Amino acid sequence: MQGCRRRRRPLQPAAMRAIANAPRPVAERRLALPDEAATAALARRIASLARPGDVIALAGDLGSGKTFFARAFIGEAEVPSPTFTLVQIYERPVGRIWHFDLYRLKQASEAIELDIEDAFAEGISLIEWPERLGSLLPAERLDVALDFAAEPQARVATLTGRGRWAGLLDEVAT
Questions:
Q1: Residue 3: what pLDDT?
Q2: What is the pLDDT of residue 1?
Q3: Calpha distance 168→50 (Å, rounded)
Q4: Which of 2, 6, 86, 107 would suit a FRET pair with 117, their CA atoms being 20 to 30 Å apart?
Q5: What is the CATH number of the domain that holds 99?
Q6: 169 falls within a domain
Q7: In a domain, 149, yes or no
Q8: pLDDT score for 16
Q9: According to the model, what pLDDT value does residue 110 have?
Q10: Euclidean distance between CA atoms 104 and 120, whole angstroms
Q11: Structural domain tally of the chain?
Q12: How far apart are CA 130 and CA 102, in angstroms?
């Protein structure tokens, strides 16, 4: 039966690379996050500004709080880490949130099989281990790097806004 399944666009990795390499404005802020409540508050502020087409790239060592951040961003305490499924999709009033964990990718092209093009075009993409995308990672995005701090629950967040996000960093960092 035709028409029941949405028509899929052909894969466009070359076009994705060209868009990723286009120059964009860049801004950076460092924030001290003294505890998990501060990390969750940051995630909620970013979520309140996110809209379909946005990419939030979460970087940091294992255990640095990327999945905790994602739970607060998505707004659910029981968000599973998509380490084994690679992607989880959440329907929200603002739009669909695609939560990717790319830790297990061996090469960037494997992300195409996860419908990452659709996520970039139509949803909000929250990506753990974004460096695994290489040149497929969109140039316009918000990078959130979480680093350990002196106290066990404390983190330091380095926010790098590219494109639209460069102009939003002051609002995010308040």
A1: 39
A2: 37
A3: 10
A4: 2
A5: 3.40.50.300
A6: no
A7: yes
A8: 59
A9: 87
A10: 20
A11: 1
A12: 7
Which residue in this structure is represented by tokens 């599973």? 80
Kindly state the tokens that stand for 97. Answer: 């949130």
Nearest to 156 by CA among 27, 42, 77, 26: 42
Residue whose C-alpha is closest to residue 161's, from 61, 68, 55: 55
User: Mean pLDDT in runs of 10 for the chain (174 residues)?
Assistant: 45 58 79 96 97 96 90 82 79 93 88 88 94 92 95 94 94 88
- Rg (C-alpha) for the chain, rounded Å, is 16
Contacts 24+ apart (CB under 8 A), 166-172: 166/24, 166/25, 166/26, 166/27, 167/25, 167/27, 168/49, 168/142, 169/27, 169/28, 169/29, 170/29, 171/45, 171/49, 172/29, 172/42, 172/45, 172/46, 172/49, 172/142
pLDDT for 5 equals 37
Question: Given this model, what pLDDT does residue 37 score?
Answer: 96
Boundaries of domain holding 52 = 27-164
- Partner residues linked to 157 by β-bridges: 31, 146
The encoded tokens of residue 119 equal 């996520």
* pTM reported for the whole predicted model: 0.82
Residue where the block lists tokens 């066990």: 152
Position 1 in a domain: no
- Give SS3 for 9: coil
Kindly state whether residue 111 falls inside one of the protein's structural domains: yes
